[in-house]
Amino acid sequence: MNVIVTELAEIYGALCRTEEPQLPEAMAFSAYARSQAARDPAELARPNVFWMDQFAERPRSLELPTDRPRPSVKSFQGTSLCRRIDAKLYQAVKKAGARQGSTLFVTLLAAFQALMGRLADQDEVVVGVPTAGQSLLEDQTLVGHCVNISSDPRRLETRHANLRVPRGHRQACARRV
């Protein structure tokens, strides 16, 4: 998204000055893939070591209560359910997270993990969050969609979940960057 916003700002500014926009040439995804393949194996192993340490002791799968028996064979057939929350609740949740120094996303992630922990009666909940690292490239503009899953292992006191949870999430998110 930052590529689009940056380039639109450059185009708009140039057109306002009645000049030709000067956009940098975008890096092709194939060039990015080649540069990643040429990296030092020790450098590439560093993130793997971090994650292997994070999950040295694997948490058990969530056993959530259901309203019907699970099929013997997974089908991955599902659906989506969309609901809107009212503006007052949105602002209240956003402010509660901000008081802890957290974004709305981190606050909602913490609430979701606390809810899953309570429903499953488990103290550890891991949620995978899609992340993109293209914006971390120095001096390059990558055109393409690179997604990694960032897992957030969280040990919860599910019976006493409170607004202090987001602070730990914020610190965990910062360590991964």
What does it look like?
The protein starts with a helix and ends with a helix. Helix 4 (87-99) packs across helix 5 and helix 5 crosses helix 6 (165-176). It has helices spanning 2-16, 29-37, 41-54, 87-99, 104-120, 165-176, and strands spanning 124-131, 148-155. The radius of gyration is 21 Å and the shape is extended. A two-stranded antiparallel ribbon has the order 1-2. The model has no long low-confidence stretch (mean pLDDT 80). By secondary structure, it is mainly alpha-helical. Helix content is 45%, strand content 9%. It is built from 6 helices and 2 strands. It has one domain: Chloramphenicol Acetyltransferase, CATH 3.30.559.
Describe, in short, the structure shown.
With 177 residues, this protein is mainly alpha-helical. The protein has helices at residues 2-16, 29-37, 41-54, 87-99, 104-120, 165-176, and strands at residues 124-131, 148-155.
Give the DSSP E fraction (strand runs of 2 or more residues).
5-15%
- CATH third-level topology: Chloramphenicol Acetyltransferase
> What is the CA–CA distance across the termini?
18 Å
SS-derived structural category: mainly alpha
Level of helix content?
40-55%
CATH architecture assignment name: 2-Layer Sandwich
Given the structure, what is the number of helices? Answer: 6
CATH class group: Alpha Beta
Taking pLDDT < 50 over at least 5 consecutive residues as the criterion, the unreliable ranges are: none
